């Protein structure tokens, strides 16, 4: 078990073509002053307005402009850059960039990164007021929001084209505030504990029983809770996902290690069991690698402790949020599971070959004492926000 320390927020700033690109220089500067690590990616059109050198000077790192730059790709390639980011903000986001993103195009480095990242993506739209009001742009805006993208602005006021109306880029200070402070601090002062990922139950020193959980939902919940001001402990099964900024992460392997890590936390306000905990473990794992004998091999499995049930039966129990992954009879199975384990809120999802596990998005059915809510297919970060909003709705605070 080890505890990973927190790091400064890693923000990827995307700059698309528009006269407001010059304001993005001030944005990068403000982010650096606020203690963030910033990398800048510009579209080809953006480089006509401001030179990459300006952004290099303020960010302290070389600026990337093309996807097919062999030298840059050999340093931090575009997938590594997408994974590196805690948040992506595109400012200014032109009408063209919004249209490309809304349609899932990945025809340059910036749009590719926006597709490849699991970090929240923010856009600060900037364009002439008629372009903003056009039904095509509005349809793209709606589609992007559906995909989990957060729009920052635009603001109304005088525009570079001489007109007045909606379409100005938000001021850099407002963008920084939205990015770093988060929309609401509605979990300030709470301790949120999240379990995430799958567990590994050893068979022998080199083999184990595992499952297909990626940990993405739990990591997204931990990141969202921090954004809302909570102190967050993330107890994670083996996962390659980066630790969200501001989260205390405890790495574990087996269900019993996860149980011990949860048990050691004396006080929590909200417990989220997002881990896919193995229900069984091998009774007596071999201490040497098992050799094949050609005969049938039987493994004796014994039940693992039920972590969420134990938390829900504490005398000073926190608000308990659990998950149910079901292949059939979603509502019935989830409702029964909620009752049986004493959860306050259960988030149920259908799983199958192409659903639920190891994907950046999902659809959920939330069930609690006297209510329910269906959350349509969306990015897991977006779902995390909806889950905490539902928590507030239930507890009415
Ligand atoms: N869970 C847990 N400890 C376990 C098993 C599950 O804390 N040993 C939690 C999960 O994190 C999740 C919820 O319980 O929040 C539902 O897990 P699931 O495995 O779907 O429930 P089971 O009771 O194991 O039901 P099933 O028979 O469907 O496997």
What's the layout of helices and strands?
Layout: E1 3-4, E2 10-15, H1 21-33, E3 37-42, H2 52-59, H3 70-75, H4 78-84, E4 87-93, H5 95-102, H6 109-116, E5 121-125, H7 129-133, H8 135-146, E6 150-151, E7 155-158, E8 164-168, H9 172-181, E9 191-196, E10 201-204, E11 207-209, H10 216-227, E12 231-236, E13 248-251, H11 255-263, E14 270-273, E15 280-282, E16 301-303, H12 307-312, E17 319-326, H13 330-341, E18 345-350, E19 361-368, E20 371-379, H14 380-395
Parallel strand pairs: 2-3, 2-4, 4-5, 5-6, 9-12, 9-14, 12-13, 14-17, 17-18
Antiparallel strand pairs: 1-13, 7-8, 10-11, 15-16, 18-19, 19-20
Helix pairs in contact: 1-2, 1-9, 4-6, 5-8, 10-14
The structure holds cytidine-5'-triphosphate.
Verbal overview:
This protein has 397 residues and is of the alpha/beta class. The protein has two domains: 10-183, Rossmann fold, CATH 3.40.50.1950; 185-287 and 296-396, Rossmann fold (3-Layer(aba) Sandwich), CATH 3.40.50. It contains 14 helices and 20 strands. The chain has a nine-stranded mixed sheet with strand order 1-13-12-9-14-17-18-19-20, sandwiched between helices. Helix 1 (21-33) crosses helix 9. The longest helix is centred in the last third of the chain and has 16 residues, at 380-395. The chain is globular and about 75 Å long. 44% of the residues are buried. Mean pLDDT is 91; it is low at 1-6. The chain binds cytidine-5'-triphosphate. The site of cytidine-5'-triphosphate has 16 residues, from helix 12, strand 17 and helix 13.
